[in-house]
Specification:
Mean pLDDT: 89
Strand order of the largest sheet: 2-1-7-8
Low-confidence stretches: none
Largest sheet: 4 strands, antiparallel
Oligomer: single chain
Number of strands: 8
Strand content: 25-35%
Number of helices: 5
Order of helices and strands: EHEHEEHHHEEEE
Helix content: 25-40%
Length: about 200
């Protein structure tokens, strides 16, 4: 295992409400896809606000949780509570995903969270960066710049609002049965080992 990989690791998700999750499960069952058997199921149905990261040696988990709680006590932007329209099913990178609309206030909140909690992300050295970059392919110069600054390349204009529902080997026919999405909360997630599921350890409200 590459020496830069360590556990636990953390991420920040927007978690859909149960109604949306139930609708997605019904859609997958219509297409003979059992969600629990998919390779991506350890990540659950979510929108990633901050991509998975390893914790810097300068901070501990308690400090990360405290900062998460303080951020949402002081931040009045609740745009994630809006109703988002489902625009359709599309292939994004290597997954099939439901694409959603967004707006400037929502995008600002997500980008602000991503930047704010980057303080806690472990910074890789040059050798570790070269190993980590093998996860990605054919990055543009701007995507590479984002990776070097934020540890993840697909941000800002390279990111769109979507919920992954199936891996690339599964064909899913969208029947327009899912019209909208509501989020229940923003969650700080933790993964304890390589094959472990991400578990919520702190919620926005």
């Amino acid at each position: 295992m590459d020496n830069y990989i360590q556990f636990p690791r953390y991420s920040i998700y927007l978690i859909p409400n149960k109604s949306f999750i139930d609708q997605v499960e019904k859609l997958l069952l219509k297409n003979n896809v059992k969600y629990d058997n998919l390779g991506i199921s350890k990540y659950g149905l979510h929108y990633t606000v901050k991509a998975p990261f390893y914790l810097s040696h300068l901070y501990n988990e308690e400090e990360l949780i405290n900062s998460f709680q303080e951020y949402f006590l002081s931040n009045q932007n609740r745009s994630y509570k809006e109703v988002f329209n489902v625009l359709g099913l599309k292939k994004i990178k290597n997954v099939i995903a439901l694409e959603m609309n967004s707006n400037e206030k929502f995008n600002f909140l997500c980008n602000d969270i991503m930047r704010y909690f980057d303080l806690f992300r472990k910074t890789l050295n040059q050798q570790e960066v070269q190993k980590d970059l093998k996860r990605f392919s054919n990055l543009t110069s701007l995507e590479m710049e984002y990776y070097l600054i934020w540890g993840y390349p697909y941000l800002f204009e390279f990111s769109n609002h979507h919920i992954s529902v199936s891996d690339i080997t599964k064909d899913v026919i969208f029947d327009n049965s899912i019209k909208s999405l509501n989020y229940s909360y923003i969650s700080l997630m933790k993964q304890d080992n390589l094959n472990g599921k991400f578990i919520s350890i702190c919620k926005s409200d």
